[in-house]
Every structure is written in structure tokens, then in C-alpha cells.
Amino acid sequence: MTAASKITAMTLTDRAKRAANVAAEFADNVDVEGRFPSEGMDALKAERLMGIMIRPDFGGEGANLTEVADICAILGQACASTAMTYAMHQIQIASLADYAIGSNWHEEFQKRICAEQLLIASATSEAGIGGNLRNSICAIEVEGDTARLTKDAIVISYGAHADATMVTSRRHPDAAHSDQVATIFLKDQYTLEQTSVWDTLGMRGTCSDGFIFKAEAPKEQILPRPFAEIAAQSMLAVSHLLWGALWYGIAADATARAQSFVKAAARKSPGQVPPGALRLAEASSLLQLVKSNVVAGLKQFAACKGDGDALNAMSFSVAMNNVKIGTSQTILTIINHCMLICGIAGYKNGTPFSLGRHLRDAHSAQLMISNDRILGNTSTMLLVNKQDTSLLG
């Protein structure tokens, strides 16, 4: 049995926990220095977790989204920057695995991802449109068998550390802003001219700097399916679900620290209920709501997967939007409760109960695809779509 097969013989959960232990060791340092979480990502690669959603005949393990979301939740309890980098990588993998079927180049590339444990970034944000996923100003230009692209990307998360980048653009220079394609460019096929530095409140280790992205590659690297289809049926839902899972992980670790604080207080005063116990119970209740929200979304996605009509339905979009809104808002309430429970020990850095990193990382949740934009889209859909009130899904 090879070393790789010995690793893959273990459960995904066990492998994720081993990687998370490494990521947790360096989480505070990654946050303080605002550096890429190389130790956590190297551990994920060592556990061969980068291509698990890819089909087994291409070298993957055929893992489903729920299994990947559980890994994100485990990582979220250790290092949010590692968890976010892994989640964003898997968003690109989902697009490749499901929307490049039959494309020889992309199928061979999936084999490389699994064999070499490659890290894939995404360049969707652009100067002039911000984070509007479904609009592009730049356009890919195809001349003969060659495709060229220049994009002013205001953010490319871990762009300088990726082995390849999936980039959105207009289909051609005369195409409408919403007529988009996605293209995979390998690291040696593009240059990055840095235009901004990622010096932020939280999620500091994602290193989401801005770049002028210039690339040239064979045109066969353009994904065969329209990006509108990929975004509607995969990317938006997968983003909300995997982000929701890692955000749940952040809140779960905060709650665990608060619980440890209350238990320590109880041991010091036997027979007395510590002051933070009731607030801990409330935090636990809210954490269960977040978990239920994400799990329900994952089940709905699994039920709709492969059914274009179901994935394009307004009711599905509303449900996925609600996963993102509910999770991103509630985790802040949970972590604030935990901060009040732990008091100064939670407010200070360097204690077993420190929560500053958790709180700062969690504040990114409402901004990653702005909640206001999502609520605006949902409100428009609810004008014409009846709210689903069934408990049966």
C-alpha cells in the first residue's frame, strides 16, 4: 500500500482533524502577521484533501458537498483563514467537476489537481463592478487557438500562492457584461501586478490582494459551459454553503471556549451556577440554529443536484440566500455572547479564552457578497415567488 493510499484509507473527518490540529497551532501567528496559512494548507495537501470532490476515475474520491462542508467546519474551529482558503478552492473544484464534463483539457487538469494537490484561486471581482459575480468589464480575446485576457481584479484571494486561477470575463469584446465565460489559467500562463494590499480587520491570512491579471493560454482552457449556468447552479450555492459551514466552525469554537470558561468557574464555586451559564445556554441554542440552517441547505442542494430546473428555481435561490444571511448574522450574536461570558479573558489576546480573532474573522461574513445585495435579490424574487412553508423540503 502506497503512502497516499494509506492516507485515503482513513476517513475524511479524521484527515481533516489532523490538518486542523496543524492549522490551529499557527492560527494566531497567521492572524498577527497577516500571512498565508502555509502550514495549514500544507497539512491539507499532505492529507490529500484538495481534490476529494473530483471523480475517482480522475484521481479524486467523489466526496459530496456535505462531506466537504464538514471539513470546512472542522477547519473553521481551528483557523478561519485556512478554512476560507480551502472553501474557496473547493468552490472552483465544484465548478470544474460538474461543468467541464467532456472537456479533455479540464479532465486532465482535474487529474493533476489530485496528483499534485494543486490550489486553485478565483478572480471574479473587478474594478468598476466590485464583487458583482454576474458582471464583467474585461473580455477574453481569442485569436486562432490562443486566448488572452487582462483583468483589473480588485481581490484575488491567496492569488500569489495559487497554482492556477479561474477567471471570469465577457465571452468576447462585443459581448454583454452578463455574457460571461470562466477560464482556467495555470500559474506559468499569467502575471500578477499587485495593486492593493490585504491589511484587514479579519480573515487576514487569505491574503486577498488586488492585482492586474494578464494571461495567455490555449483557448481550450475556457470552460465549455456558460458562466451564467455555473454561477446559478453551482458557484453561488456552494459558496453560501461552504462559507456557512466554516462560519459555523468559528462560532462553535467560540462557544467551546465559553463553555470551558463556565466550567472552570463552576469548579471554583461548587453548588453555585456561574453567572455566564444562562448566556452559554442561549449561545448553544443559537449555534444549533446555525447548524440546522447549514445542514438544511446542504440537504436541499443534494436533492436538487443534477436537476437544472430545480437548481434554477427561485425557491432554491431564496433558500441558499437565506442560509448565507441567517448564518452570517447569527454567528456575530453567538460570539458576542461568548465574549460577555469570558469577559476580560475573552477580550485579551493570548489566553485560552481569547475571542478577538473569532470576532474579527466573523465580521467578514456579512461582507462576502454583501448581505444588502443578497437581501435585495431575495426581495425581488419574493415579489413573484411564493415562500416555501413545507417542513418536507
Molecular structure report:
The relative contact order is 0.11. Helix content is 53%, strand content 11%. A hairpin with a 2-residue loop joins strand 2 (141-143) and strand 3. The protein is an alpha+beta fold. The longest helix is centred in the middle third of the chain and has 42 residues, at 227-268. The protein contains 13 helices and 7 strands. Helix 4 (65-76) crosses helix 7 (227-268).
Protein traits:
globular, alpha+beta, Butyryl-CoA Dehydrogenase, subunit A, domain 2, 393 residues, 53% helix, three-stranded mixed beta sheet, four-stranded antiparallel beta sheet, 7 strands, Butyryl-Coa Dehydrogenase, subunit A, domain 1, Butyryl-CoA Dehydrogenase, subunit A, domain 3, 3 domains
How is the secondary structure organized here?
Blueprint: H1 3-8, H2 12-33, H3 38-46, H4 65-76, H5 80-99, H6 104-116, E1 120-123, E2 141-143, E3 146-153, E4 164-170, E5 180-186, E6 190-196, E7 210-218, H7 227-268, H8 277-304, H9 308-312, H10 314-342, H11 344-347, H12 356-362, H13 371-382
Parallel strand pairs: 1-4
Antiparallel strand pairs: 2-3, 3-7, 4-5, 6-7
